[in-house]
Write a structure and sequence with these properties.
Pfam families: Amino_oxidase. InterPro entries: Amino_oxidase (IPR002937), Carotenoid/retinoid_OxRdtase (IPR014105), FAD/NAD-bd_sf (IPR036188), Phytoene_DH_bac_CS (IPR008150). GO terms for molecular function: oxidoreductase activity, acting on the CH-CH group of donors. 33% of the residues lie in helices and 18% in strands. By secondary structure, it is an alpha+beta fold. The strands form six sheets. Strands 7-6-15-16-17-14-18 form a seven-stranded mixed β-sheet. It has a three-stranded antiparallel β-sheet with strand order 4-8-5. α2 runs parallel beside α17 and α6 packs antiparallel against α7. It starts with a helix and ends in a 25-residue tail after the last helix. The chain binds flavin-adenine dinucleotide (FAD).
């Protein structure tokens, strides 16, 4: 969309039969529709700015429903929490677990408001070299960042009860990381949920992707589905186009959105890369993966929240199992989306869709998923009883299972690491593959593998950074307002509809 806005002649080539990639819709037989990946639509401001820059209005194209409660947390250790963006209601919920911690909620919010404000310019700019680190914005933000502290350690300055800390730190899993390792900067993730809301796009997150494809097409972008790129064409180090199963496309510049590590190791000859050779990529840290069940269910589930997160008693052990990858978690935490409670159109009348996500290690040779799949499915269905889903198996009318092996084979994601390269400090900013890709000429990156990182609002920001760099380089008019991430404290842009 942004490149078309600069006047560039844009062609998108996509290997699947649908747009959206990890964020696409699974249109299943029987009339069930599931989000494949993202179900928490957070911080719509970035995408809204992109639509506005293209003369369009996101809120007209997609019905974004703000959830309250935004999710239901159930702790195996005892207790529960109906997370609400309403501060009074939220304080009441936290007080049920720990009255002292409830009193610290306003301080957590105001500190993180300042933190986001300080770090915002860093998220919005490109990191093309180490010298970009000597940036006044970044230097100013450092004292608030506590760069060598983890999310969990930082939260202990506010919350003594480990369950409350979990309520504000499980979001590290959005980056595929452990809250005990994830840099403390990322306490802004939970803050942003409370400040700007957790939204459900009517029709699912795939509806947002469809709206983007529609907008792009209206702006003259050609979208070619079912056309896997089989080769990137080079003259020396300069990319000159791609060859798909349908033919060749020549281009002045190439934007790679497919999974970074998978694309480099499969489509770019190793000898062309200096910094990101196959060997070096192989030694990088990758995020966790997910074991997925997409279930079409007969009957409705009115008592189950839109989002339920079940947090296992020994969370640290669960995380260690995921990080080590030697065995599958025996008593895993899990997440269930019952989207039909808000959006009944996702299933035929009288039916529901259940999306079950269990964080597991990315694909490693020690776990043979062809052998483990059936056993783990049974274990997960049994585990669903913990949130009151005791009779689900006999009501299943459609079922799809996706394992780390499936993410790798079917979705072309390196090692099935669904959240891309890990977001450790040594793999962020200029140390992440750069938006203007440093190893090749005429190649730009967007998506979770480049700066700023994984997650929808952030990958939309990567698109904005990359489009600016590309427009500058190609001498195209950058005729859209730079746009800024929404200043913390301002009201959310979308008309709020509380479900
Ligand atoms: C299970 C799960 C849950 C998640 N939950 C959330 C959430 O709640 N909120 C949130 O904000 N984020 C969430 N995320 C993260 C979010 O999905 C990702 O950050 C984001 O979708 C990554 O986008 P991307 O453009 O980098 O990759 P992708 O969406 O994978 O896009 C890459 C595209 O390239 C295509 N492609 C690959 N190879 C080729 C080829 N050879 N030729 C042509 N095309 C090719 C793919 O088909 C795909 O369309 C979740 C992810 C997963 C997997």
């Amino acid at each position: 969309m942004l490149l078309a806005r600069t006047g560039a002649d844009v062609t998108v080539v996509e290997r699947l039969d649908r747009v959206g990639g990890r964020s696409s819709t699974i249109e299943a037989e029987g009339g069930y529709r599931f989000d494949m990946g993202p179900t928490f639509f957070l911080y719509p401001r970035v995408l809204s700015d992109i639509f506005a820059a293209c003369g369009k209005d996101l809120s007209r194209e997609v019905d974004l429903i703000r959830l309250d409660p935004q999710y239901h947390l159930i702790f195996e250790a005892g207790g529960e929490l109906h997370a609400s963006p309403n501060q009074t209601k939220m304080a009441e919920q936290v007080a049920k677990l720990s009255p002292a911690d409830a009193a610290n909620l306003p301080r957590f919010m105001s500190d993180n408001r300042r933190k986001l404000e300080a770090f915002r310019p860093v998220l919005e700019k490109a990191f093309n070299s180490v010298f970009d680190l000597v940036d006044p914005a970044l230097l100013k933000s450092l004292p608030l960042m506590r760069p060598h502290q983890s999310v969990d350690a930082d939260l202990s300055r506010y919350f003594a009860d480990p369950r409350v800390r979990l309520a504000f730190s499980f979001q590290s899993k959005y980056l595929g990381m452990s809250p005990f390792r994830c840099p403390s900067l990322f306490t802004i993730l939970s803050f942003m949920e409370y400040e700007f809301g957790v939204h459900h796009p009517r029709g699912g997150t795939g509806a947002v992707m469809a709206a983007m494809a529609k907008a792009a097409t209206e702006m003259g972008v050609r979208i070619r589905l079912n056309e896997p790129v089989e080769e990137i064409l080079f003259e020396g180090r300069k990319a000159t186009g791609v060859r798909t199963n349908a033919g060749e496309y020549k281009a002045d510049a190439l934007v790679i959105n497919s999974d970074f590590a998978q694309t480099m190791t499969n489509l770019v000859p190793n000898h062309l890369r200096k910094r990101w050779t196959d060997e070096k990529i192989g030694r990088k840290k990758f995020s966790c993966s997910t074991f997925m069940l997409y279930l079409g269910i007969e009957g409705t589930l009115p008592d189950l929240a839109h989002h339920t997160i079940y947090l296992t008693k020994d969370y640290a052990r669960n995380i260690k199992d995921i990080e080590d990858g030697l065995e599958l978690p025996a008593e895993p935490s899990f997440y269930v989306q019952n989207a039909c409670v808000t959006d009944p159109g996702l299933a035929p009348p009288g039916h529901s869709t259940l999306y079950v996500l269990v964080p597991v290690a990315h694909r490693m040779d020690v776990i043979d998923w062809t052998r483990e799949q059936a056993r783990y499915r049974a274990l997960v269905l049994k585990r669903l009883e913990r949130i009151g889903l005791t009779d689900i198996e006999k009501r299943i009318r459609y079922e799809k299972v996706l394992t780390p092996q499936g993410w790798e084979d079917d979705m072309q994601i390196y090692r099935g690491a669904t959240f891309n390269l890990a977001h450790s400090l040594d793999q962020m900013l200029h140390l992440r593959p750069r938006n203007k890709f440093e190893d090749l000429e005429g190649v730009y990156l967007v998506g979770g593998g480049t700066h700023p990182g994984s997650g929808l609002p952030v990958i939309f920001e990567s698109a904005r950074i990359t489009s600016r760099l590309m427009a500058d380089q190609l001498g195209l008019s950058q005729n859209w307002e730079p746009g800024t991430l929404m200043a913390a404290g301002q009201s959310a842009l979308v008309e709020e509809r509380v479900s």
